[in-house]
Amino acid sequence: MGSLLFSYTRAHFKKVNPRLIYSRTHLFFMHKNVQCLSTREGNKPPGVYKKQGIKQKDYLGKERQARPKSVFDAGTASRTAEFQKRKMGDDPHEDGRKVSAKGGDIPSHPLTVTEWKNLKENFKIPQRFEVRMMEKMLVANTDIDVAKSLLAFVAMETGTLSYELLLRYLTVCVHGSHHTEVFDMYDIMKNRFKTLDMGAYSLFVKGFSRTERWQECLLLLETIKKVITPSARNYADAINGAVQHGDTATGWRLYDEMMEKGVNPRQDIWQLLFNSGSDLSSESKLHSILFYMRENQIYPDEALARSIKAWFESLPGNQWKGSWATINARGVCQSCKAGLESIQLSEDEYRQLRDSVMRDVIEGPDVFNKTTPEELETFKRFVKRKPPFDVVIDGLNVANSSTQGNQSETLLAVVSQLVQDGLRVLVLGRKHMLRPSRSWDRGNMSLIQKKADCFFTENISEDDPFLLYAALHSGNHCKFVSRDLMRDHKACLPNSSTRRLFFKWQRGHQMVLPNFLSLRRIVFQQIPSYDTIIQTDDNCWHIPYDPQWVERCTYEVPKTWLCLTRNK
Ligand code: ZN
Predict the structure, then answer these.
(1) Cα dihedral angle (381, 499, 66, 235), rounded to 10 degrees?
(2) CATH of the domain spanning 347-511, picked from 3.20.20.70, 3.40.1160.10, 3.40.50.11980, 3.30.420.10
(3) Residue 334: enclosing H or E segment and its boundaries?
(4) What is the whole-number distance in angstroms between the Cα of residue 236 and the centre of ligand 1?
(5) N or C terminus: fewer CB in 10 A for the chain?
(6) Could you give the CA distance from residue 50 to residue 566 in angstroms, rounded to a whole number?
(7) Which DSSP category does 519 fall into?
(8) Buried (b) or exposed (e) across 254-272, using 16+ Cβ within 10 A?
(9) pTM to 2 decimals?
(10) What one-character-per-residue DSSP string does 442-494 give?
(11) What is the Å distance from ligand 1's center to 2 Cα?
């Protein structure tokens, strides 16, 4: 990867006092005297030519998607935790790839060229000394003058400053909110390079958004848009700039644009917008955010929930009162005593969901990535021959859910419990489970086949289509046991209302084993009678949220609610 280099005339540096080089004025002066060298790849940094939607390597070499993952993909809980850590300044990806600061070799004050030279000679891997040192400074939040003195040393020693090193320096400037230095770097880099990579533009958007020059973020976004769709983070930074400087209308314009472009919003953007005004002018827009979260089964984190509560309570006329609530087993809010929406699908809803899954998932184009047409046909004939099932078990998934005993023992214990409860059970498994081994005891497997109907697919097949087909074919009463979320199928479902029904069906039909499963007594987690989703009527909102620091598994739903009621 050819990096674009600055070339400095050594003669120039010989005339100046190295101690002055790290001053702001001089760094700015340096750029006016540099000569730009083209590389074999032309006068553009890596990534500039990449088209929209294609994976690009960012300035730190880390591959990333042009579009971020949705907040409601599998893994939301762990990302929620990540988001919370990030807010505490502990995000390993924030503004670049951080490295361990161990070693204690970052200077505590600016060094002279000679001092840097000595330090470099003692560095284990001198080849990338400057870049690594700059990365360490980012982690350690080192004084910016130390970073400047490093740049001055490199310029003196090599006559060049690589694009890579300048970007890392820019990251240090942005991360430390050194606004003047960010402005300087913008002038320097814009003058030296025809175009910058998207990483640099993103850093400038963030850097400018916090200053009186926040409106330049809009121009930077336009530049980014010529190459890729700006990321949710870009929009978050720009919206933050607008909102923090009192231009809420621009904040909303950017939000609308982001939604039109199909960029999935982040929770911090919503929080910014809820924080942006305590009047009714944004009411319908803020409500539409809540409806978006409902349609997409997104649960706000605690910080956003607090902002939502504060916004409602700040509305003129003291109309709304918010409280943190729990819901009892019968689905009644313990704060306002209102009943929540039932988890049960109506007959119409169930029919709509079943027809869509059968048409778009089971008969859909992606299904044969997971099985073969012959195997699926055999399975359909098998299911049609049997009376409806009460429970369908993802055998491999259940077998791996306990650390006690071997896999076949766990599966047998779960099957036995369900059969003992009078339920008709289908176990989906893979053919390898029938080959006796330490994990798959012949006796246990034969007992399972006596107690339940079993269907063993080819080892490479995946269980989801089989599980969905058998469960939906059996009727609305049929539940399933699996820890998997079957999120893949979301993309196959044609519209948001069917997707919502799918997840509602899942929440109401998924039997979940406890995290610490005792084989002596199998007790499933209770399926709530109410739906855990944002819901409203004219006089109240009920919003399930994730409390800070509580990690929720993806197959679980929040237990904590924000209850908002209108004063009567
Ligand atoms: Zn309530």
Answers:
(1) 180
(2) 3.40.50.11980
(3) none
(4) 31
(5) C
(6) 51
(7) T
(8) bbeebeeeebbbbbbbbbb
(9) 0.72
(10) HHHHHHHHHHSEEEEE-TT--SHHHHHHHHHHH-TT-EEE-S---GGGGGGSS
(11) 60
CA-to-CA distance for 102 and 112, rounded, in angstroms? 23
Which pair of tokens denotes residue 520? Answer: 């002596």
SS3 call for 105: coil
Q: What is the amino acid identity at position 484?
A: D
Report residue 398 as tokens: 């259940």
- Which structure tokens are listed for 463? 């269980």
Q: Ligand 1 centre from 422 Cα, in Å?
A: 37
For residues 480 and 565, what is the distance between their CA atoms, to the nearest angstrom? 36
- 333 Cα to the center of ligand 1, angstroms: 5
Interatomic CA distance for residues 543 and 536, integer angstroms: 9
Tens-digit pLDDT string for the chain (568 aa) = 333 333 332 333 333 333 333 444 344 334 433 333 223 233 333 333 333 333 333 333 333 333 322 222 333 334 444 433 443 333 333 333 333 334 447 898 999 999 999 998 888 777 789 999 999 999 998 899 999 999 999 999 888 888 999 999 999 999 999 999 999 999 999 888 888 899 999 999 999 999 999 999 999 999 999 999 999 999 999 999 999 999 999 999 999 999 999 999 999 999 999 998 766 678 889 999 999 999 888 999 999 999 999 999 998 887 899 999 999 989 999 999 999 999 999 999 999 999 988 888 888 777 777 788 899 899 999 999 999 999 999 999 899 888 777 899 999 999 999 999 999 999 999 999 999 999 999 999 999 999 999 999 988 777 788 898 999 999 999 999 987 656 666 667 778 888 889 989 988 999 988 777 777 888 888 888 999 999 999 899 999 999 988 777 767 789 999 999 998 7
Tell me how far apart the alpha carbons of residues 465 and 469 are, in angstroms, rounded to a whole number: 6
CA dihedral 104, 105, 110, 111 (to 10 degrees): 150
Q: Which amino acid is at 125?
A: I
Query: Locate tokens 């077998």: which residue?
Result: 399
Count of CA atoms in the C-beta half-sphere (13 A) of 201? 27
Contacts of 60 (CB under 8 A, 6+ apart): 96, 97, 199
The Å distance, Cα 349 to ligand 1 centre, comes to 26
Distance 81 CA to ligand 1 centre (A): 26
What's the rounded Cα separation, in Å, for the pair 263 and 68?
A: 7
- Hey, what amino acid is at 411? L
| Rounded Cα–Cα distance for residues 501 and 350 (Å) | 8
